[in-house]
Specification:
The chain is an alpha/beta fold. The chain has three helices and six strands, in the order E-E-E-H-E-H-E-H-E. 37% of the residues lie in helices and 35% in strands.
Length: 127
């Protein structure tokens, strides 16, 4: 069993992953200079999860902002989830949550959705 629980702050996202439940949650701001190091625990956990995943995997992304270097790590996370789906190891469902009226985050989610072969749900959050 693998559990990742990284508490975020003003510049760093909160990242939670529980392999026993098949739940991943990434939320907040990701304005990191070295996102590869910050995201490493969840990337490692997902790579391990690939060998013994749950039948259903639920991933929730609720980003307020992310810089370009963080977007690469978000995409790497998505690619690991997509591999689970493509290889039939787990049915992956992604929720991309964005604040009401935040066209930039909506567009970012739509961009990811267009590049990936997974079930995406766009969710507008009201205040």
């Amino acid at each position: 069993m693998s559990v990742v629980n990284i508490q975020g702050d003003k510049k760093n996202p909160t990242i939670q992953f529980d392999s026993e439940k098949g739940h991943l949650n990434i939320e907040g701001r990701s304005n990191l200079e070295n996102p590869a190091r910050y995201y490493r625990p969840v990337i490692d956990a997902l790579e391990d999860y690939f060998h013994n995943p749950q039948p259903e995997t639920h991933a929730r992304f609720a980003m307020e902002y992310f810089n370009s270097s963080s977007s690469k790590m978000i995409m790497k996370t998505f690619r690991l989830l997509e591999k689970l789906q493509i290889e039939g190891k787990s049915n992956v469902h992604v929720e991309w949550c964005y604040d009401e009226g935040d066209g930039s985050m909506l567009e970012a989610g739509e961009d990811y959705m267009s590049m990936l072969k997974m079930d995406f749900e766009m969710i507008e959050l009201s205040d």
